[in-house]
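Schema walkthrough. Field components (list of strings):
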Amino acid sequence: MSDIDIELVSVCKTFGDFRAVNDVSLSVPKGEFVSLLGPSGCGKTTTLNMIAGFQEPTSGEIRIRGNCQTRTPPEKRNIGLVFQNYALFPHMTVAENVGFGLRMKGAPRAEIDQAVKAALKSVHLEGLDARYPKELSGGQQQRTALARAIAPKPSVLLLDEPLSNLDLKLREAMRVELKEIQEKLGMTFVYVTHDQEEAMAMSDRVVVMAGGVIAQQGRPEAIYNSPATSFVADFIGKSNILPVAVKQAAGDRREISIGGTPLTLRVEGDASTLATAKFCCIRPEDVRVVDNGAQPLPDDNVFDGTIAKIVNLGAHLDLWVSVDPGMTIKALVRSNRSGTLKTGQPITVSIGAKAIRLLDR
Amino acid sequence: MSAVVTEMPAAAPKGRRSSLGGYVPLVPPLTVLLIFFAIPIGMMIGISFQDPKTAAWSLVSYEKFFTDNLMIAGLLRTLVMSGLVAICVTVMAYPVGYFLARSTSRWRAVVFALAIAPELAGVVLRTYGWLIILEDRGFINDALIWSGIVLSPLPLAKNLFGVVVGLTHVVLPFGILAIMTSIQGIDPNLEKAAQILGASRLSVLRHVVFPLSVPGIVSSLLISFTMAASAYATPALLGGARFKVLATMIYEQIMFYTNWPMAAVMALVLLVLMLAFSFAGTRAETRLHKKLNV
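Field assembly_structure (string):
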């Protein structure tokens, strides 16, 4: 028990008739970086608020460090929280903000000063302790908020979309830094975000939420490579999600036909997966353009089509390849090929049978 | 984009003309203010320098005001009464204002209506209500005597106590609104942040909400003080003949002594007093605003 920092057992939260969180069970081991990822309204913030103690679950149990704390008020939970808008106390200096938690716990002056210094050092904010929050840049405010949350050394730190108010460059730098701080302190981080890249970049485990339930949880690469549902496949990264109409299995050869089109695809997978498949998911980077340089493998699915649209992403190009009036497949190719590709031009693409994932919902 | 550019030269001179035209709507209110406010105040200042008997220029009324013990007592009484009302209103308005600013319960609308409703009844009506409750044969004294707690009626009306009670009731809604607005401007996440850092409900109030709502407290004190100092009906009815403040004394000077210069001096003292408090209060508030960045 002691190595589980946070445990949610069948937690539900309803607001009137609306089920914001529906039977969520989750356990977070000590020192893990877990992201709650999902679109707005998926219940991730409600879940965070219940862990923090700002909202009480309608049913279910919340255990923190092995103790049931479902009805414990936030001030007695001994956890840290970083707010999206930082919520720094405007009438206190950086040092007073960071020392607030220890001051409330009645720590002696010397200990507070030392902890403030250490916390500011770990977020690289030395020398700004006498400033007021309004005299800081957005990034510095963010670091102050982080320092304030970690100064009392809680075993668990909750972060509510803390990077969403920063510009892209700073956000990417902070991702790396947050992960470093988390590893150095050995703290359990529960990170709420709607940004899948952020979640993928930092987390040991990603918990994808949708409609108040956990859609899938696992290591970031596992979620990316084998999404459990079409929702997860669509939400995490980019993907082509196609409806599956007819399924056939003849010996080793398994085929599906795409709904609304005459196209068929050769796939791999066991018979039961094939029997229940409703959708298939193809990552754009698995769609290869066939030309003199790259020939398809013998078992690949090969389609002729035309380029409907090209979106330049910098290092890569997003190709929208129309292979049938009812179907457009997105492909990701390196930008160095941009010279040879034009909108309206005929093109041949191939998709490996292994790259097609069958999903039952 | 191009449409905007081509329109610009044509629009520019029109815009310049209309910027002067923007002052036109200000003419009626400014005229009203001039006729009914600036000119009377000027006349009042002029009258204050007249001799009551000869109407010649003189400082006799000023001299009398600052040397007459009755006048000074009236001034001090006004200060004490207004100060007490300001403190009572602000202390009572704070919890109500906090509740109204933060509550999400359905009772919020009811409390808001109850807090503001007294303003709908006139001042005189409310003051008579308090008279019925507080006077010697009033509700409270009747009840106390009937139950045997006291033998003779307590002096609840016709004194400072009665006036402060009545005025507090009159001014309270303004104090509530001032404090409510101030607390609504404080990010609720600050309270959550303090809480998760281990602060009890009381500590959150003491270290976060209270310091950040000081501008609202200053506004409430200021509004209550000036409203109380300038109130006439409540001190006149609840104060009786013995409890005289500047407002009732001015009335007396005009109606009973027809001493306009004396009344003008007293009115000016009252005006300067309130201006001084407003100035000090506003300055304190601006400084706080700057410091708190709210």
